[in-house]
Amino acid sequence: RRHTRFKCDWSSDVCSSDLCQSILDSNPRDLIALQNMGNALLNLGRYKEAILICDKVLQFNDSDEYSIKNKIMALEKLGEYDSVILLCNTILSKNPLNPWLLNSKGLAYNELGQHDAAISFYDMTLKIDPKNITALLNKANSLFFLENYVEAIQNYDLAQKIENNNKISLAKSEAFLKLGKEDEAFLAAQGLLISRSEEHTSELPVTLE
How high is the pLDDT of residue 37? Predict the structure, then answer.
């Protein structure tokens, strides 16, 4: 989830960080420069530095959406998922219907191995935004880890109807293999098999479209 947002048309993250630093040297409270600096550092993989810059922005404006997202993504990259959950809780207490934050919280629980908790937050996301492909795929992956391959396939189907790509096809193919359905797995791997969600039963009937 590479988040890009520049208020200036700068050609590279290195250039951006240098220009931002030049601005901040003369005005350390320039919020636009701080926002862009945090974004550039995130994209450069300098995650700890990005978090420090995001924190500076949040000291001035604790609801700054871009710095919150950048900080969460930097924490994810560092594997600090407990911190992600704490930050999401803080922001969600003020804005409980933010699908991006709900999905991020679910992802953090998933990475901590708490797949049932993760799914509950993906479901909250999907209640707000039923076509949120990230939440659909994350939910499918958590269901896969829980060995609930039938429901995983259903969610891969829903995601595939929004955006059909090879990664989804291969993930769905693997789920079919886990069910011992080799023919369906072969078709799914080629992106040819999209089951109709409303026709799914415990036997998982397959419909070619």
Answer: 85
